[in-house]
Design goal:
Blueprint lengths: L5 E5 L3 H12 L3 E5 L3 H20 L7 H7 L1 E3 L2 H4 L5 E4 L5 H14 L5 E4 L6 H5 L9 E6 L8 E5 L6 H13 L3 E5 L8 H17 L5 H16 L4 H8 L1 H11 L11 H8 L18 H25 L1
Parallel strand pairs: 1-2, 1-4, 2-3, 4-5, 5-6, 7-8
Antiparallel strand pairs: 6-7
Helix pairs in contact: 1-2, 2-3, 10-11
Length: 316
């Protein structure tokens, strides 16, 4: 049985509610904080939906009503964080906003609490600069969406993050069935988003150049590359293919790959037409189903893939 921690989740949005649900079903005491009551009310409903989904998938047997009611929801930072062991910030990707939030967190939380950021790419050192006297306690703790399904979490060292802080976060993550990915150099985008955005950039470039349709690019990655990558990572693939072959292909192909230093103009063209994705019914593709139905279907597919991989590993 793991030690029970008091976890504060600051920010009740898309990531925050999922983090709260995940920590709660693994037995930790959770407080969700936000600056709007409507956000907290929405988070309560979404947490209930997440736990219901996890019950349906036999991931947990905790009753959704009990989990939802056991979590504390508050607008009061001082009382909400007074006993926290770990605080995870999950607010918009704006450095000024992060600084304001971390100042509140550092003032309210105990002096030995870990101050973690779920930023997807802002340098941890820059965030820690907003609370310079507490920089050794500031660490990146970047979960991938949805956090209640994906098993790896980036732990990012800032310039002054202490070893103790890193170790405490890694231990907490393992207590909730998550596998830490240690990022030793505090670079923009860390690991996941540097790779993901490179794939986005090349995919959009291929469509823009008319090399293949959006549907075929999506299919090639989802049903081809991603399927194999779920079994073995890209660096393992290099070993299987042979480093000499990969070196030759990269020498030939690298000059032809997209190296734009701005977002592809296709994105702006769609945005200007009011097509921002599933919430408007269209982005790169058209959508007839509601956003909730689309994300529910995605979660079910991710869970099915995860189960298949887990079964394969168990047989080894």
């Amino acid at each position: 049985m793991h030690e029970t921690h008091r976890v504060g989740v600051f920010g009740a949005g898309d990531m925050g509610h999922g983090l709260a649900a995940h920590f709660a079903v693994h037995g930790h005491d959770v407080t969700v904080l936000d600056h709007r009551q409507s956000n907290l009310d929405a988070a309560r409903d979404r947490i209930h939906d997440v736990v219901s989904f996890l019950n349906d998938e036999d991931v947990t047997d905790h009753p959704p009503d009990a989990v939802t009611s056991d979590i504390e929801y508050t607008l009061d930072t001082a009382s909400g964080l007074s006993g926290a062991d770990v605080v995870i910030e999950s607010v918009p990707e704006d450095l000024d906003v992060k600084h304001q939030v971390f100042q509140q967190i550092a003032e309210a939380a105990p002096g030995d609490a870990v101050l973690a950021s779920n930023t997807s790419g802002l340098p941890i050192t820059d965030i820690a600069a907003g609370v310079a006297d507490h920089a050794e306690r500031v660490v990146g703790c970047h979960w991938w969406y949805p956090p209640y399904l994906l098993p790896t979490v980036e732990v990012v060292r800032g310039a002054e993050t202490s070893d103790e802080t890193v170790e405490r976060v890694e231990s907490l993550l393992r207590s909730v069935d998550r596998d830490p990915v240690l990022v030793n150099k505090d670079v923009p985008g860390f690991v996941w988003n540097r790779i993901q955005m490179a794939i986005f950039r090349e995919s959009l470039h291929i469509v823009e150049e008319g090399i293949a349709s959006a549907a075929d690019v999506n299919k090639a990655i989802r049903d081809g590359y991603a399927l194999r990558t779920a079994a073995i990572g890209p660096l393992e693939t290099i070993d299987i293919a042979g480093l000499d072959l990969v070196q030759t292909v990269l020498d030939d192909l690298s000059p032809h790959l997209c190296n734009d230093d701005e977002a592809n103009p296709l994105l702006e063209a769609h945005l200007s037409a009011g097509r921002d994705g599933i919430h408007s019914g269209g982005g790169i593709f058209e959508y007839d189903d509601s956003p909730d139905e689309i994300t529910q279907a995605r979660d079910e597919r991710v869970m099915a893939i995860r189960r298949a991989l887990e079964a394969t590993r168990a047989d080894r």
